[in-house]
User: Fold this.
Amino acid sequence: MTPTPRDTLHQEGTARLYRFRRPEGASPRDSVRGVSRPAEAGPPVLLVPSLINRWYILDLRPGASLVEALTRAGFDTYCLDWGEPEDEDRYLGWEDVLARLSRAARAVRRRSGAERLTLLGYCMGATVAGIQAALEPEGLAAFINLLGPFDFRHAGLLGAMADPRWFDAEAVAEAGNVSPLQMQSAFVLLRPTAQIGKWVSFAERAPDPEAREAFFSLEEWAADNIPFPAAAYRTYIRELYQQNLLVQGRHRVGGKRVDLSRIRCPVLTVVAERDAICPPQAAEALNEALGRPDAEVLRVSGGHVGAVVGAKASRTLYPAIISWLERHASGGGQAAWVD
Assistant:
Protein backbone atom coordinates (compact mmCIF):
# COMPACT_ATOMS: atom_id res chain seq x y z
CA MET A 1 0.00 0.00 0.00
CA THR A 2 1.22 3.45 -0.86
CA PRO A 3 1.28 5.87 2.10
CA THR A 4 -0.79 8.72 0.67
CA PRO A 5 -4.59 8.35 0.36
CA ARG A 6 -5.88 9.16 -3.11
CA ASP A 7 -9.03 9.44 -5.18
CA THR A 8 -9.46 8.48 -8.83
CA LEU A 9 -10.80 11.49 -10.73
CA HIS A 10 -10.83 10.11 -14.24
CA GLN A 11 -10.16 6.92 -16.19
CA GLU A 12 -9.26 6.59 -19.86
CA GLY A 13 -8.54 3.09 -21.08
CA THR A 14 -6.18 1.59 -18.54
CA ALA A 15 -4.94 5.03 -17.41
CA ARG A 16 -6.16 6.79 -14.28
CA LEU A 17 -5.79 10.30 -12.93
CA TYR A 18 -5.30 10.45 -9.16
CA ARG A 19 -5.66 13.29 -6.72
CA PHE A 20 -3.91 12.79 -3.38
CA ARG A 21 -5.37 13.67 -0.02
CA ARG A 22 -3.36 15.13 2.81
CA PRO A 23 -1.60 12.33 4.72
CA GLU A 24 -3.24 11.35 7.99
CA GLY A 25 -2.06 13.56 10.83
CA ALA A 26 -0.69 16.31 8.59
CA SER A 27 -1.64 19.83 9.59
CA PRO A 28 -2.43 22.70 7.19
CA ARG A 29 1.08 24.01 7.72
CA ASP A 30 3.02 20.80 8.18
CA SER A 31 6.72 20.88 7.46
CA VAL A 32 9.07 18.69 5.46
CA ARG A 33 12.62 18.95 6.73
CA GLY A 34 12.26 22.63 7.49
CA VAL A 35 10.13 23.60 4.47
CA SER A 36 6.68 24.88 5.37
CA ARG A 37 3.82 26.01 3.14
CA PRO A 38 0.15 26.83 3.63
CA ALA A 39 -2.38 24.19 2.61
CA GLU A 40 -2.77 23.78 -1.16
CA ALA A 41 -0.59 26.82 -1.91
CA GLY A 42 0.36 27.71 -5.44
CA PRO A 43 -0.62 25.91 -8.64
CA PRO A 44 -1.45 22.19 -8.64
CA VAL A 45 1.33 19.68 -9.36
CA LEU A 46 0.78 16.91 -11.92
CA LEU A 47 3.23 14.02 -11.60
CA VAL A 48 4.08 12.14 -14.79
CA PRO A 49 5.82 8.80 -14.17
CA SER A 50 7.51 6.52 -16.69
CA LEU A 51 5.31 4.55 -19.06
CA ILE A 52 7.06 1.27 -18.26
CA ASN A 53 7.30 1.41 -14.46
CA ARG A 54 4.56 1.61 -11.87
CA TRP A 55 3.75 5.13 -10.76
CA TYR A 56 4.07 4.40 -7.06
CA ILE A 57 7.84 4.79 -7.03
CA LEU A 58 6.81 8.40 -6.35
CA ASP A 59 4.77 7.27 -3.32
CA LEU A 60 6.69 4.18 -2.25
CA ARG A 61 6.46 4.17 1.54
CA PRO A 62 6.28 6.60 4.48
CA GLY A 63 9.40 8.75 4.51
CA ALA A 64 10.34 7.72 0.97
CA SER A 65 7.59 9.42 -0.98
CA LEU A 66 7.74 12.55 -3.09
CA VAL A 67 3.93 12.57 -3.08
CA GLU A 68 3.85 12.55 0.71
CA ALA A 69 6.36 15.40 0.85
CA LEU A 70 4.41 17.53 -1.63
CA THR A 71 1.04 17.02 0.04
CA ARG A 72 2.47 17.68 3.49
CA ALA A 73 3.95 20.90 2.13
CA GLY A 74 0.50 22.00 0.99
CA PHE A 75 0.60 21.27 -2.74
CA ASP A 76 -2.53 20.07 -4.50
CA THR A 77 -0.95 16.96 -6.01
CA TYR A 78 -2.11 14.74 -8.88
CA CYS A 79 -0.60 11.81 -10.76
CA LEU A 80 -1.25 10.26 -14.16
CA ASP A 81 -1.08 6.49 -13.75
CA TRP A 82 -0.52 5.19 -17.30
CA GLY A 83 -1.92 1.80 -16.30
CA GLU A 84 -1.04 -1.62 -17.66
CA PRO A 85 -1.55 -1.87 -21.43
CA GLU A 86 -3.72 -4.70 -22.71
CA ASP A 87 -2.97 -6.62 -25.90
CA GLU A 88 -5.14 -4.28 -27.96
CA ASP A 89 -3.10 -1.32 -26.72
CA ARG A 90 -0.31 -2.36 -29.07
CA TYR A 91 -1.78 0.27 -31.40
CA LEU A 92 -1.52 3.07 -28.83
CA GLY A 93 0.87 5.45 -30.55
CA TRP A 94 3.22 8.14 -29.31
CA GLU A 95 0.72 10.83 -30.29
CA ASP A 96 -1.97 8.99 -28.29
CA VAL A 97 0.31 9.04 -25.24
CA LEU A 98 0.83 12.80 -25.55
CA ALA A 99 -2.88 13.39 -26.10
CA ARG A 100 -3.67 11.43 -22.96
CA LEU A 101 -1.28 13.59 -20.95
CA SER A 102 -2.79 16.75 -22.46
CA ARG A 103 -6.28 15.67 -21.40
CA ALA A 104 -5.04 14.85 -17.90
CA ALA A 105 -3.50 18.32 -17.61
CA ARG A 106 -6.76 19.93 -18.68
CA ALA A 107 -8.65 17.82 -16.14
CA VAL A 108 -6.31 18.98 -13.36
CA ARG A 109 -6.75 22.64 -14.28
CA ARG A 110 -10.49 22.19 -14.49
CA ARG A 111 -10.73 20.38 -11.16
CA SER A 112 -8.41 22.76 -9.33
CA GLY A 113 -9.66 25.98 -10.91
CA ALA A 114 -6.06 27.03 -11.64
CA GLU A 115 -5.09 28.56 -14.97
CA ARG A 116 -1.70 26.87 -14.88
CA LEU A 117 -0.12 23.83 -13.29
CA THR A 118 3.32 22.45 -12.55
CA LEU A 119 4.40 19.40 -14.53
CA LEU A 120 6.86 17.14 -12.73
CA GLY A 121 8.01 14.22 -14.85
CA TYR A 122 10.19 11.33 -13.75
CA CYS A 123 12.40 9.22 -16.03
CA MET A 124 10.71 8.68 -19.42
CA GLY A 125 7.72 10.53 -17.97
CA ALA A 126 9.89 13.66 -17.82
CA THR A 127 10.70 13.33 -21.52
CA VAL A 128 7.00 12.97 -22.34
CA ALA A 129 6.12 15.88 -20.02
CA GLY A 130 8.81 18.04 -21.62
CA ILE A 131 7.33 17.40 -25.06
CA GLN A 132 3.89 18.30 -23.70
CA ALA A 133 5.32 21.47 -22.14
CA ALA A 134 6.72 22.53 -25.51
CA LEU A 135 3.48 21.77 -27.36
CA GLU A 136 1.20 23.56 -24.88
CA PRO A 137 3.39 26.01 -22.92
CA GLU A 138 0.59 28.41 -22.06
CA GLY A 139 -0.86 26.09 -19.40
CA LEU A 140 2.29 25.79 -17.31
CA ALA A 141 3.43 27.51 -14.14
CA ALA A 142 6.64 25.46 -13.89
CA PHE A 143 8.29 22.29 -15.21
CA ILE A 144 10.53 19.90 -13.29
CA ASN A 145 12.57 17.35 -15.19
CA LEU A 146 13.39 14.63 -12.67
CA LEU A 147 16.04 12.41 -14.26
CA GLY A 148 14.56 12.46 -17.76
CA PRO A 149 16.67 12.28 -20.96
CA PHE A 150 16.43 14.82 -23.78
CA ASP A 151 19.70 14.41 -25.68
CA PHE A 152 20.04 10.74 -26.51
CA ARG A 153 23.61 11.12 -27.75
CA HIS A 154 24.41 10.92 -24.06
CA ALA A 155 22.14 7.95 -23.31
CA GLY A 156 25.10 5.82 -22.24
CA LEU A 157 24.98 2.05 -22.55
CA LEU A 158 21.23 2.04 -23.19
CA GLY A 159 21.86 4.24 -26.20
CA ALA A 160 24.60 1.90 -27.40
CA MET A 161 22.29 -1.11 -27.09
CA ALA A 162 19.60 0.70 -29.13
CA ASP A 163 22.01 1.55 -31.96
CA PRO A 164 20.17 0.89 -35.26
CA ARG A 165 23.21 -0.96 -36.63
CA TRP A 166 22.28 -3.91 -34.48
CA PHE A 167 18.89 -3.15 -32.93
CA ASP A 168 15.68 -3.29 -34.97
CA ALA A 169 12.87 -1.58 -33.03
CA GLU A 170 10.43 -2.31 -35.85
CA ALA A 171 10.95 -6.05 -35.51
CA VAL A 172 10.51 -5.89 -31.74
CA ALA A 173 7.29 -3.86 -31.97
CA GLU A 174 5.90 -6.05 -34.74
CA ALA A 175 5.35 -8.84 -32.18
CA GLY A 176 3.07 -6.63 -30.05
CA ASN A 177 3.53 -4.82 -26.75
CA VAL A 178 7.11 -5.01 -25.49
CA SER A 179 7.12 -7.15 -22.35
CA PRO A 180 8.69 -6.10 -19.05
CA LEU A 181 11.15 -9.00 -19.33
CA GLN A 182 12.43 -7.70 -22.65
CA MET A 183 13.02 -4.23 -21.26
CA GLN A 184 14.39 -5.29 -17.89
CA SER A 185 17.00 -7.42 -19.63
CA ALA A 186 18.54 -4.23 -20.98
CA PHE A 187 18.67 -2.66 -17.53
CA VAL A 188 20.32 -5.78 -16.09
CA LEU A 189 23.05 -5.45 -18.72
CA LEU A 190 23.83 -1.97 -17.42
CA ARG A 191 25.09 -3.50 -14.16
CA PRO A 192 25.38 -7.29 -14.51
CA THR A 193 26.64 -7.80 -10.95
CA ALA A 194 24.11 -5.47 -9.31
CA GLN A 195 21.85 -8.30 -8.15
CA ILE A 196 24.69 -10.00 -6.29
CA GLY A 197 25.90 -6.75 -4.78
CA LYS A 198 22.38 -5.83 -3.72
CA TRP A 199 21.87 -9.00 -1.70
CA VAL A 200 25.35 -8.83 -0.15
CA SER A 201 24.61 -5.29 0.97
CA PHE A 202 21.20 -6.32 2.29
CA ALA A 203 22.73 -9.10 4.38
CA GLU A 204 24.75 -6.47 6.24
CA ARG A 205 21.68 -4.32 6.94
CA ALA A 206 19.08 -7.05 7.47
CA PRO A 207 18.96 -6.75 11.30
CA ASP A 208 17.60 -3.18 10.94
CA PRO A 209 13.76 -3.31 10.55
CA GLU A 210 13.68 0.01 8.69
CA ALA A 211 16.34 -1.20 6.26
CA ARG A 212 14.36 -4.38 5.64
CA GLU A 213 11.19 -2.41 4.94
CA ALA A 214 13.03 -0.11 2.53
CA PHE A 215 14.65 -3.03 0.73
CA PHE A 216 11.56 -5.17 0.26
CA SER A 217 9.27 -2.30 -0.73
CA LEU A 218 11.73 -1.32 -3.45
CA GLU A 219 12.11 -4.95 -4.53
CA GLU A 220 8.35 -5.26 -4.86
CA TRP A 221 8.19 -2.16 -7.04
CA ALA A 222 11.16 -3.26 -9.18
CA ALA A 223 9.44 -6.56 -9.97
CA ASP A 224 6.12 -4.90 -10.82
CA ASN A 225 6.79 -3.61 -14.32
CA ILE A 226 4.39 -3.10 -17.21
CA PRO A 227 4.54 -3.53 -21.00
CA PHE A 228 5.36 -0.73 -23.43
CA PRO A 229 2.63 -0.21 -26.09
CA ALA A 230 4.18 -1.39 -29.34
CA ALA A 231 3.32 1.60 -31.54
CA ALA A 232 4.58 4.13 -28.97
CA TYR A 233 7.71 2.04 -28.39
CA ARG A 234 8.49 2.07 -32.11
CA THR A 235 8.45 5.88 -32.22
CA TYR A 236 10.27 6.33 -28.92
CA ILE A 237 13.20 4.13 -29.90
CA ARG A 238 13.44 5.18 -33.54
CA GLU A 239 12.94 8.96 -33.27
CA LEU A 240 14.44 9.67 -29.85
CA TYR A 241 17.07 7.03 -29.12
CA GLN A 242 18.20 6.26 -32.65
CA GLN A 243 17.65 9.53 -34.54
CA ASN A 244 17.82 11.92 -31.56
CA LEU A 245 15.23 14.19 -33.15
CA LEU A 246 13.91 15.77 -29.95
CA VAL A 247 16.88 17.89 -28.95
CA GLN A 248 17.46 18.81 -32.61
CA GLY A 249 13.97 20.32 -32.86
CA ARG A 250 12.97 17.81 -35.54
CA HIS A 251 10.61 15.59 -33.54
CA ARG A 252 6.94 16.02 -34.53
CA VAL A 253 3.75 15.14 -32.68
CA GLY A 254 0.39 15.45 -34.41
CA GLY A 255 2.03 17.34 -37.25
CA LYS A 256 3.52 19.91 -34.86
CA ARG A 257 7.26 20.36 -34.47
CA VAL A 258 8.40 20.02 -30.86
CA ASP A 259 10.50 23.11 -30.14
CA LEU A 260 11.81 22.88 -26.58
CA SER A 261 12.65 26.58 -26.58
CA ARG A 262 8.89 27.26 -26.50
CA ILE A 263 8.90 26.25 -22.83
CA ARG A 264 8.79 29.68 -21.19
CA CYS A 265 7.94 28.78 -17.61
CA PRO A 266 10.58 28.27 -14.88
CA VAL A 267 12.45 24.97 -15.37
CA LEU A 268 14.36 22.77 -12.93
CA THR A 269 16.36 19.78 -14.14
CA VAL A 270 17.37 17.21 -11.53
CA VAL A 271 20.32 14.92 -12.28
CA ALA A 272 21.83 12.10 -10.23
CA GLU A 273 25.58 11.65 -10.18
CA ARG A 274 25.49 7.84 -10.62
CA ASP A 275 22.55 7.62 -13.01
CA ALA A 276 23.27 5.00 -15.69
CA ILE A 277 19.74 5.14 -17.15
CA CYS A 278 19.68 8.90 -17.65
CA PRO A 279 23.26 10.20 -17.50
CA PRO A 280 23.44 13.83 -16.34
CA GLN A 281 24.33 15.22 -19.78
CA ALA A 282 21.23 13.61 -21.31
CA ALA A 283 18.99 15.50 -18.87
CA GLU A 284 20.93 18.78 -18.77
CA ALA A 285 20.49 19.08 -22.53
CA LEU A 286 16.95 20.33 -21.86
CA ASN A 287 18.32 23.45 -20.19
CA GLU A 288 20.73 24.01 -23.08
CA ALA A 289 17.91 23.66 -25.60
CA LEU A 290 15.89 26.30 -23.76
CA GLY A 291 18.55 28.89 -24.52
CA ARG A 292 17.92 30.64 -21.20
CA PRO A 293 20.43 31.17 -18.39
CA ASP A 294 17.74 31.05 -15.69
CA ALA A 295 16.90 27.34 -16.10
CA GLU A 296 18.34 25.58 -13.07
CA VAL A 297 20.08 22.25 -12.49
CA LEU A 298 19.91 20.38 -9.19
CA ARG A 299 22.56 17.69 -8.69
CA VAL A 300 21.88 14.95 -6.17
CA SER A 301 23.72 11.81 -5.13
CA GLY A 302 22.65 8.29 -5.98
CA GLY A 303 21.42 6.45 -9.04
CA HIS A 304 18.28 6.65 -11.14
CA VAL A 305 16.01 5.12 -8.47
CA GLY A 306 17.99 5.63 -5.28
CA ALA A 307 18.07 9.39 -5.80
CA VAL A 308 14.26 9.43 -5.62
CA VAL A 309 13.55 6.97 -2.79
CA GLY A 310 16.92 6.40 -1.12
CA ALA A 311 17.86 7.35 2.41
CA LYS A 312 18.97 10.85 1.41
CA ALA A 313 15.94 11.74 -0.72
CA SER A 314 13.83 13.06 2.17
CA ARG A 315 16.74 15.17 3.40
CA THR A 316 17.90 16.58 0.09
CA LEU A 317 15.72 16.01 -2.99
CA TYR A 318 12.24 16.58 -1.56
CA PRO A 319 13.07 19.81 0.34
CA ALA A 320 14.98 21.15 -2.67
CA ILE A 321 12.03 20.57 -5.00
CA ILE A 322 9.60 22.13 -2.54
CA SER A 323 11.86 25.12 -1.99
CA TRP A 324 12.23 25.62 -5.74
CA LEU A 325 8.47 25.47 -6.22
CA GLU A 326 8.08 27.98 -3.40
CA ARG A 327 10.31 30.43 -5.28
CA HIS A 328 9.20 29.80 -8.86
CA ALA A 329 5.65 28.43 -8.96
CA SER A 330 3.77 30.32 -6.27
CA GLY A 331 0.81 32.61 -6.81
CA GLY A 332 -2.09 30.25 -7.29
CA GLY A 333 -1.19 29.22 -10.80
CA GLN A 334 -0.50 32.75 -12.00
CA ALA A 335 3.28 32.42 -12.33
CA ALA A 336 4.64 34.64 -15.07
CA TRP A 337 6.38 33.31 -18.13
CA VAL A 338 10.00 34.19 -18.81
CA ASP A 339 10.34 36.69 -21.63
User: Anything to note?
Assistant: Residues 20 and 184 are 30 Å apart (CA to CA).
